[in-house]
Structure formats: structure tokens, C-alpha cells
């Protein structure tokens, strides 16, 4: 599930419930102190977390599937053809299916671990960071002291992931506006100018403090996205050419771009816990077929199809966002470009709420006197928005910033943390021949590969593009 999605107003409420969640353990819970020497992981089959949840407006199983699928069909899918350009037609197809399977498995083990931790701690439900913290508290004696750090680490990862995602949005909007302005006004302004021009409207829209006031923006974003996807699919699937100048497998140097882009597009673990915690029948979430497996099968299939056909359509000219490939001289394509700009712009404020809410509640607000709270909010929002624009300016190109977010942020949030939590929770039951530890070791190796190669590629390409700009400027001035 793509990370940098365009969530609806319903998803916004789920985000708020997830990141505002301060789970209170029941009076009858048995929680071991950090210095306890009692046996850990003592089974308690008498407590069933699902039966103790009190959800005022629960989602049905079908509703949960719709939530997961809808939250994934955002801007990440527009980058899939570019992922296939780097991975190749055959390797891209197989690789996307493999990444989809690995992402689904990581979500599965995280939710299973959360259920197990809820049972041991006699807690109805836990959020993402609470699951990590409680796993350490009920884990081996030697790691109990790291429980507070685990909670902070997850919060930092969530804030970093969504905050860097805002930078992706900035580049995305600026790229589309630059294309339209250049077509009509024949200007040749650099992309940086358009990013700076976005700063004021983004600062203003992010001063909205209540989620309920963002609902109209969310609705407008959904309408614009539907229009964008419809027009884009029309251009992609109409008059598909025969296989021409296509590579079946990308070079080794291109594979980090492929994997990082696919992880960025498909990964969306931040949505999973609030959806599962608000289900009417949470026991339907896992298993076969199960809500998770059905949703991820639909998501992976759609992403693979769009990536395959998009690359088949535009071949070596495929851009980091497929909407950039649409012919700018046609009115229908211009409508799609305008709609995607509006959709991403409106969603920026909603996505901004997630990292800002955590940062404000846990790190900023406690250090500001109450009488300066209002001024502090204005300043904090302005600084954070400006920071996202600054990051977008520093990383030259939509493809590189997508790769950076996928490799550095989403791989940590969606692979490392679930693997670590599952390993701790199942430490005393590693399975026959320690298969759980071996499997998690493989996932950890894949995480290291995605993290190191993706980040290294971004650093090298960024340096190369800046050096190229310096050469062009030097040649121009000497002439």
C-alpha cells in the first residue's frame, strides 16, 4: 500500500485515531515491570482482545478492504511505470509481485504480533508505536529497558516517513505546474522557482488545525484523483504499441531505483493498524482469504498492471510520474495535469497532519509555555512546511526523492520494525529448525539491501546531477 497516498476523510479519521491513541491498560491487566524476574510470555488463553474492544462505529470486513485499497490508490501508483523502466518488463513484473508478497507478509506478522501482545498485556488494541513498546516490555529480560526507545523510534520513523512524503508532494506539484506554464507561457524557469512559489499557499493551508475542516479538501482531492486516474488510464491503454525499445531486466545499478520505487508505491503500513483496530470482526483481518490478503492481492495486481502497461506505452521516455508523459498540448491531458496538481495540493494538508500531530504533542508543545501555544503552532507549522520544501529543493528530481523515501523511510517502517517486533514476540517459539529466525533474517537482509543501495544511488545521482548543472552553467558563462 502506497505510502504517500491521498486518504479520504474517512481515512483521515483513522489516521487521527491511530496517532492520537494513548492506550490505557485495564485494571485487571498483568503487566510485568522492567526489572521483573518472572517468566515472560506466560500464555493467557482466557483473554481475547477482540471481545474487549469498544468501537462506536466499527467497519465491516468489506469496508476494511475498501479502506485499504482506497488508501493505496494514490500518487504512488503513478510512479509504477517508472519503476518498470528501471527494473525491466519481466523483472519488474516478477519483482513487483515479490515485493507485494513481502510487504503483505510484514503487515501480517505485525498484526499477529500486536494480537499476541494485546493478549499478554490484556489490552483490547494497540497502535503501531504501542505495539513496539509493549513487545519490548514483554520480551526477553535483556531488552526490556529498550521499551521506551522502541516507542520513540517508531514515532520518529512515522514522522520522518510522512514528512519526507510531503517533499515528494512538493516536487510532484512543481513538476506538473512547470510543464503547464512552460507550454502556455514558453518560460524556462528552473523547478526550484516553482517550489518556492508553492511555499506560501502550502503554509496557509497547513494552518488549518482541525481534521473536520480538512474534509472538504479531502473530498476535492478524491474527485480530482478519480478524474486524473480515468484520463491517465485512457492514455495508457488506448493504442498500446507492440513491444519496442524495452528492456526485460534492468541493469544492477538500476535495481535499487526499482525496489525503492515499488516499496514507496505499495507500502502503507501506517494505515493498517487503525483499520484493523476499528473492524467489527477483526478476526477476519488475517487468514486466507482474509481482509489483508484480499486487499493486497487487488493492490499488487493493479500496481503491476499499471506499471507494465505504462512502461509498454512510453518505453524509454517513461517519466517518474506517468502524468508527466501525457501530451501537454491536448486539453484532456491538461485537465489530468491540473486535477493531479489540485489533488496533491489538497492532500498535502491532510498528510501534514500526521507528522505534525506527533511532533507537536510529544516534542514541541511540552517545551512551549501555554500562553505562547497559539503562536508556537503557527511558527511550528510554518517551519515544518518550509523544511519540506527545502528537502524537495535539495534532492534534484522526483525519481530520486521517491527512491530516497522508499529506501530510507518506508523500508524501515514497513520491513524492519515488523520483523523486529515479530522476532521479539516469537523469541521463545522460533519454530522447527528456527525457521522464523531464518525467515526474519532474510527479510532483514532485504531491508539492508533496499536501504543501503537505494540511499547510495540517491547520493551518487544527486552529486552527478549537481556536477552536471555546474558544467552547464560554466559552459554558458564562458560562451
Automatic annotation (TrEMBL):
GO molecular function: L-amino acid transmembrane transporter activity
Membrane topology category: Multi-pass membrane protein
Annotated transmembrane regions: 62-84, 90-111, 146-171, 191-208, 215-237, 257-275, 287-311, 331-354, 401-425, 437-459
One Gene Ontology cellular component annotation held by this UniProt entry: vacuolar membrane
Top-level taxonomic group: Eukaryota
InterPro entries with a match to the protein in the record: AA_transpt_TM
Domain annotation Amino acid transporter transmembrane: ranges: 60-459
Name of the protein described by the UniProt record: Proton-coupled amino acid transporter-like protein CG1139 isoform X1
Organism, as annotated: Agrilus planipennis (Emerald ash borer)
Amino acid at each position: 500500500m502506497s505510502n504517500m497516498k491521498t486518504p479520504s476523510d474517512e481515512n483521515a479519521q483513522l489516521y487521527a485515531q491511530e496517532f492520537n491513541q494513548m492506550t490505557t491498560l485495564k485494571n485487571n491487566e498483568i503487566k510485568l515491570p522492567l526489572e521483573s524476574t518472572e517468566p515472560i510470555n506466560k500464555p493467557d488463553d482466557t483473554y481475547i482482545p477482540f471481545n474487549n474492544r469498544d468501537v462506536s462505529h466499527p467497519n465491516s470486513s468489506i469496508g476494511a478492504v475498501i479502506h485499504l485499497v482506497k488508501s493505496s490508490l494514490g500518487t504512488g501508483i503513478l510512479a509504477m511505470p517508472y519503476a518498470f523502466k528501471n527494473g525491466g518488463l519481466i523483472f519488474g513484473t516478477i519483482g513487483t509481485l515479490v515485493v507485494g508478497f513481502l510487504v503483505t507478509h510484514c503487515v501480517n506478522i505485525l498484526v499477529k504480533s500486536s494480537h499476541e501482545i494485546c493478549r499478554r498485556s490484556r489490552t483490547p488494541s494497540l497502535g503501531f508505536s504501542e505495539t513496539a513498546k509493549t513487545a519490548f516490555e514483554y520480551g526477553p529480560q535483556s531488552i526490556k529497558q529498550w521499551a521506551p526507545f522502541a516507542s520513540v523510534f517508531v514515532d520518529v520513523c512515522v514522522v520522518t516517513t510522512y514528512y519526507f512524503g510531503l517533499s515528494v508532494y512538493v516536487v510532484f506539484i512543481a513538476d506538473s505546474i512547470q510543464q503547464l506554464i512552460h507550454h502556455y507561457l514558453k518560460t524556462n524557469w528552473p523547478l526550484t522557482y516553482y517550489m518556492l512559489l508553492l511555499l506560501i499557499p502550502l503554509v496557509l493551508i497547513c494552518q488549518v488545525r482541525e481534521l473536520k475542516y480538512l474534509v472538504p479538501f479531502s473530498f476535492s482531492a478524491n474527485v480530482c484523483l478519480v478524474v486524473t486516474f480515468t484520463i491517465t488510464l485512457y492514455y495508457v491503454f488506448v493504442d498500446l504499441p507492440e513491444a519496442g525499445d524495452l528492456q526485460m531486466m534492468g541493469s544492477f545499478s538500476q535495481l535499487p531505483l526499482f525496489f525503492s520505487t515499488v516499496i514507496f508505491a505499495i507500502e502503507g503500513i501506517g494505515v493498517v493498524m487503525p483499520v484493523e483496530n476499528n473492524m467489527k470482526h477483526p478476526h477476519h483481518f488475517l487468514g486466507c482469504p482474509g481482509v489483508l490478503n484480499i486487499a493486497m492481492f487487488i493492490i499488487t495486481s493493479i500496481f503491476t498492471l499499471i506499471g507494465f502497461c505504462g512502461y509498454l506505452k512510453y518505453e524509454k521516455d517513461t517519466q517518474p510520474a506517468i502524468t508527466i508523459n501525457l501530451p501537454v498540448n491536448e486539453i484532456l491531458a491538461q485537465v489530468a495535469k491540473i486535477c493531479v496538481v489540485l489533488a496533491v495540493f489538497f492532500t498535502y494538508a491532510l498528510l501534514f497532519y500526521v507528522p505534525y500531530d506527533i511532533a507537536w504533542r510529544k516534542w514541541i508543545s511540552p517545551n512551549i509555555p501555554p500562553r505562547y501555544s497559539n503562536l508556537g503552532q503557527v511558527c511550528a507549522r510554518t517551519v515544518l512546511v518550509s523544511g519540506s520544501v527545502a528537502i524537495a529543493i535539495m534532492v534534484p528530481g522526483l525519481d530520486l526523492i521517491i527512491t530516497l523515501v522508499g529506501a530510507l523511510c518506508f523500508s524501515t517502517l514497513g520491513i524492519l520494525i515488523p520483523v523486529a517486533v515479530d522476532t521479539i514476540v516469537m523469541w521463545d517459539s522460533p519454530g522447527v529448525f528456527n525457521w522464523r529466525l531464518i525467515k526474519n533474517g532474510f527479510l532483514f537482509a532485504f531491508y539492508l539491501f533496499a536501504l543501503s543501495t537505494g540511499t547510495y544511488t540517491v547520493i551518487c545521482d544527486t552529486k552527478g546531477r549537481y556536477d552536471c548543472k555546474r558544467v552547464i552553467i560554466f559552459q554558458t558563462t564562458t560562451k
